[in-house]
From TrEMBL:
Pfam families: NAGPA (PF09992). Residues 1-25 form the signal peptide. Residues 97-277 form the Phosphodiester glycosidase domain. This is Exopolysaccharide biosynthesis protein. Keywords: Signal. It comes from the Bacteria.
Length: 279
């Protein structure tokens, strides 16, 4: 009997220790992120750009760029640009559409171009979903008055601009339950978008380099929660991850795209669509 009690208490101790360690680690990561001193630039009244290289976050180093857009001032300028076929770099698409800021959008056919998930621009369907994927479970939808990030296709169906991507990361401030798989769990460069009160958040984190290792989607969701966002969704990441800001050097590319395997601003991958703000 004594040995059974000993085994029970030892197992309970291990479980408690593991839980306490996990909570402590999350607390430390939260403190690391929320106390980060950001390099901040005002691009235009109501549009700010924040950049930081953070060490010690999730026991890693991360290069993060955030653009925060006041939707009350600039919501009417939000746009999608999409190619039904073919591919082009985010910076080139952004410049051709007179964007002040832009990020790459949803997943695409790397051989033929065009989105692999549903996308509608100015009421015109550019691409339909090629193959349904559990990964693509979130919609960015907007018109001149409203911007939504939603998992409900019925809720967004009437909007003139819709981009399907994912996975969904945050809903009403709560982290989504993510499947256990390599795409979600491994660290990669990531592009994502979120809503924080009246602000739209455009987000990139670089990866595949010692200067920035990238994030899992669980880590990304935690960052959005710590940042005070209500809803958030993942977009196409990896070598596609690109953030453009008009007037910046290096063709306006401010992050470190990884497609050339160098930590510079020259490794852009051609993509099929972007999310941008009209200048």
């Amino acid at each position: 009997m004594k040995s059974k009690h000993t085994a029970f208490f030892f197992a309970s101790f291990l479980i408690l220790t593991t839980l306490c360690t996990s909570v402590y680690a999350q607390s430390q990561d939260s403190i690391t992120f929320t106390t980060t001193v950001w390099k901040t630039n005002t691009l235009k009244r109501g549009i700010s750009w924040k950049q930081a290289n953070i060490t010690g976050l999730f026991d890693s180093r991360q290069e993060i760029n955030i653009i925060e857009i006041n939707l009350k001032k600039h919501g009417k300028a939000l746009r999608l640009a999409a190619l039904s076929h073919g591919l082009e770099k985010t910076s080139v698409l952004a410049k051709s559409h007179n964007a002040i800021v832009a990020i790459n959008g949803g997943f695409f056919n790397m051989k033929d171009g065009g989105a692999v998930d549903f996308i509608k621009v100015d009421r015109q369907i550019v691409n339909t979903t090629a193959n349904h994927s559990s990964r693509a479970n979130a919609y960015l939808a907007f018109d001149s008055k409203n911007v939504l990030i939603s998992s409900d296709s019925t809720q967004v169906s009437s909007f003139p601009n819709i981009l399907l991507s994912g996975p969904f990361l945050l809903k009403n401030g709560q982290e989504a339950i993510l499947s256990k798989n390599a795409f979600n769990d491994n660290r990669h460069p990531r592009t994502a978008i979120a809503i924080k009160g009246n602000n739209l958040i455009l987000f990139t984190v670089d990866g595949r380099n010692a200067n920035s290792q990238g994030l899992s989607l669980t880590e990304l969701a935690k960052i959005f929660r710590w940042y005070g966002c209500q809803d958030a969704m993942n977009l196409d990441g990896g070598g596609s991850t690109t953030m453009y800001i008009k007037g910046q050097t290096e063709q306006g590319v401010v992050n470190y795209p990884s497609d050339n395997k160098q930590f510079d601003h020259l490794g852009e991958r051609a993509v099929a669509n972007i999310i941008y703000l009209l200048n």
